[in-house]
TrEMBL record:
<dbReference type="GO" id="GO:0008483">
    <property type="term" value="F:transaminase activity"/>
</dbReference>
<dbReference type="InterPro" id="IPR015421">
    <property type="entry name" value="PyrdxlP-dep_Trfase_major"/>
</dbReference>
<dbReference type="Pfam" id="PF00202">
    <property type="entry name" value="Aminotran_3"/>
</dbReference>
<keyword id="KW-0032">Aminotransferase</keyword>
<keyword id="KW-0663">Pyridoxal phosphate</keyword>
<dbReference type="GO" id="GO:0030170">
    <property type="term" value="F:pyridoxal phosphate binding"/>
</dbReference>
<dbReference type="InterPro" id="IPR049704">
    <property type="entry name" value="Aminotrans_3_PPA_site"/>
</dbReference>
<dbReference type="InterPro" id="IPR015424">
    <property type="entry name" value="PyrdxlP-dep_Trfase"/>
</dbReference>
<keyword id="KW-0808">Transferase</keyword>
<protein>
    <submittedName>
        <fullName>Aminotransferase class III-fold pyridoxal phosphate-dependent enzyme</fullName>
    </submittedName>
</protein>
<dbReference type="InterPro" id="IPR015422">
    <property type="entry name" value="PyrdxlP-dep_Trfase_small"/>
</dbReference>
<dbReference type="InterPro" id="IPR005814">
    <property type="entry name" value="Aminotrans_3"/>
</dbReference>
Length: 554
């Protein structure tokens, strides 16, 4: 009896400990199940994998036959590559020279020039297919570079350019006239801010406004306010979504520090809804509506285009249903639902993504296009969420300021933008918008299919991405053929094509002709040759073998 009592006590304590730990274990398992199975859903694992990837590059022989192509195919590719190189050298001498000069002193440019293509091919591409980073003139839907080359603008200025470059030049010019008397006086407000606030509240359907210097800053403040008012710690973001480059919303590769209060969960997942229903530490959920184009996928760029697994899966009805479910759960659990509309704001509808999908957010962030082409960030939110102090605890505040918040020139340019957006005649630009751009995408895809070209486009309205229908390691080369046909792309290449809404049918027909011509020339130069039976899985296995060989010196 004397010896059994301690044993019984220990057993009871063990059972009690297990019972106490069981809910935590269940919650942890539920969280794990709600993560997307790819590396986009596992930030720590993605960083570990990134650290293991060794650097290697192909010499001029392996560059053209890294997929096992026979000698004659490799020679076709090599001839095509150096034909393009000659064209680039002849067409862009001033732009290439200036780009080379400043790249050594502009770290941003050195990064983008290096990561236009998969790293194995980067050195030879930089040496022979260097592009110009400079343009001098914009007009209509075109831009003109230092060498006088006119190209159709598919960059969209990273989302700023919704209504056309001329529209924004007018907003900035008129805004400058109105702000000139005050000048860059910071601190006091230009009186035009009152009109801007009124319109922003009407557009967003929310109560108050906070101005910031960029979209990244706006998201930072929205998250901070959500934590302040809910007294909870964690934010939820969805796998692959981009919300700026600050640490909490960019876990994984690119961030040297691992955020500890961020849950990266699967988009459009019932398991994610279960986590939101059951956890007590979630302050807010961030939604970037652009993810509807590629749920749970990173923003596409040609630097990661190692095979043909990129896809486009936009389903407006399905994504709307998901957002409605998300709205219900957030309301039920007191979680702040934040729409990050910095990229898509006012492109899909005059009332933004909230209007387009028919779902009300608790807070919305805007940027880019809103200031008539000048840099800005805006948070709109419910009155109870926007308050930065507590009446009963005067020292307990939620601080956010910035030197250039509400800059007079930004505010007057914003008023020009919002005044035009409010005009019924101007708003007619949204009539049949999806039908127009869906029809254009379908027409281009029909041409590509009819001409047996293994490339297609997917879109959410005027935001497009390019994907490929046959396995290949060389899809990233298409960006150079497109540029040679006079199509201006951003540094992510074919991953994102952004059209301004002032593209006429005639403008688009010219772009479509040039796109098809580029794809035909790429096919002619044998970049899409592949062995029978090749799959994307085979390509990834081959790349893994190359990395293992480099790592172990074989």
């Amino acid at each position: 009896m004397e010896t059994s009592l301690p044993i019984l006590s220990l057993s009871a304590a063990a059972l009690a400990g297990a019972a106490a730990a069981f809910p935590k274990i269940q919650a942890r398992l539920a969280l794990s199940r709600a993560k997307h199975r790819s590396l986009t859903g596992h930030s720590k694992m993605s960083k570990m994998v990134a650290r293991m990837v060794p650097h290697y590059e192909f010499d001029i022989d392996d560059f053209f036959r890294s997929d096992g192509a026979p000698k004659d195919v490799a020679m076709q590719r090599q001839d095509g590559f150096f034909r393009l190189a000659g064209l680039y050298a002849d067409r862009y001498p001033k732009g290439r020279a200036l780009t080379a000069e400043v790249t050594e002193r502009i770290s941003d440019l050195r990064f983008t020039e290096t990561y236009r293509v998969p790293f194995q091919y980067s050195r030879l591409v930089r040496e022979h297919l260097g592009t110009s980073a400079f343009v001098e003139v914009s007009s209509g839907v075109t831009v003109t570079d230092l060498d006088g080359n006119v190209s159709y603008d598919l960059t969209g200025s990273y989302g700023v350019n919704i209504f056309g470059n001329d529209f924004y030049k007018e907003c900035i010019a008129e805004g400058e006239k109105r702000a000139h008397a005050l000048g860059p006086v910071l601190g006091p407000y230009h009186p035009i801010i009152a009109d801007n606030v009124k319109r922003l509240c009407e557009i967003s359907g929310l109560d108050e406004v906070s101005f910031h210097m960029s979209g990244t800053e706006a998201v930072m403040q929205a998250v901070r306010l959500a934590r302040y008012h809910t007294k909870r710690t964690h934010l939820v973001r969805f796998a692959g979504a981009y919300h700026g480059w600050w640490g909490e919303v960019q876990p994984g590769v690119g961030n040297p520090v691992s955020p500890h209060e961020t849950y990266t969960l699967a988009d459009m997942s019932e398991k994610t809804l279960h986590v939101l229903r059951t956890r007590k530490d979630i302050a807010c959920v961030l939604v970037n509506p652009l993810q509807a184009l590629h749920p749970n996928g990173n923003a596409p760029g040609d630097s990661a285009l190692v095979d043909s697994s990129r896809s486009s899966r936009y389903d407006r009805a399905a994504y709307t249903e998901w957002l409605k479910k998300l709205r219900e759960v957030c309301t039920e659990r007191g979680i702040v639902l934040i729409f990050d509309e910095v990229f898509v704001g006012f492109r899909l509808a005059a009332g933004g993504a909230q209007e387009y999908f028919g779902v009300k957010a608790d807070m919305a962030t805007y940027g880019k296009s809103l200031a008539g082409g000048l840099p800005v960030g805006v948070v709109c939110g419910r009155k109870d969420l926007m308050r930065r102090f507590r009446d009963d605890r005067p020292a307990d505040i939620c601080f956010a300021r910035g030197t250039f918040n509400s800059h007079p020139y930004v505010m007057t340019a914003m008023d020009e933008f919002l005044s035009r957006l409010a005009s019924p005649n101007f708003r007619s630009i949204y009539n049949g918008l999806d039908e127009t751009w869906n029809g254009r995408a379908t027409a281009l895809n029909d041409r590509l299919k009819a001409q047996d070209l293994p490339v297609r486009v997917g879109n959410i309205s005027s935001i497009w991405t390019v994907y490929y229908t046959e396995p290949s390691r060389y899809n990233w080369m298409l960006q150079y053929y497109l540029r040679a046909e006079g199509l201006a792309l951003s540094w992510v290449g074919t991953g994102r094509l952004i059209f301004s809404l002032n593209y006429t049918d005639a403008d688009f027909a010219e772009v479509a002709d040039r796109f098809v011509a580029a794809a035909e020339k790429m096919k002619r130069d044998a970049w899409w040759w592949h062995q029978k039976g090749l799959t994307n899985k085979n390509i990834k296995r081959q790349i893994l073998k190359e990395m293992v060989a480099v790592r172990f010196g074989r």
